[in-house]
Amino acid sequence: MDSPKRGEIYRNENEDKLLSKWNDFLYNIVNGPITWFRETIVEPNRKEYYWYHRQYRRVPTVDQCYTDDGVCEYEADQQFFRDKQVDATIAQILKRRFENCLTYELEDQTPCYPLYDKWQEALTNYFIKYGELGHYQASRYAYMKQKHRMIWERRYGPVGSGMTRIDQELD
Fold this sequence. Notes:
Elements: H1 13-42, H2 70-104, H3 113-130, H4 139-156, H5 166-169
Helix pairs in contact: 2-3
């Protein structure tokens, strides 16, 4: 056997095995009840939430409510406001991703173009649904705006293509 060098502690293999068994024993004494409690009591009784935010039940939209049903219209307005917040947050996240891409890609910014397109599409969709509704926004006004847009597109084609009637284009 080699003699231990200065500063080294000499142990034989039996002492190492005994020490590792002692460490395992102490670990199981402390961790065993904790692991048992978690696996048999906590985890079976845990409710799994797959979303980090509260999920609301989808309620009937304002076009499905009766005209004199105030509660239904109130619920539709609340859902409209929640949807508006979600759409605004989506647009903000896409803007932040685009700006982070510009910061990261200083020389070649071509990888950022798809993010810019998605951000502009989200802004366009947000404006189509919620833009120009005025100060008092409600689901009924958004529904009427959607209805008027559909009538316009039926008569003249997509918005922004001019005011030539579709039936006049055939001439």
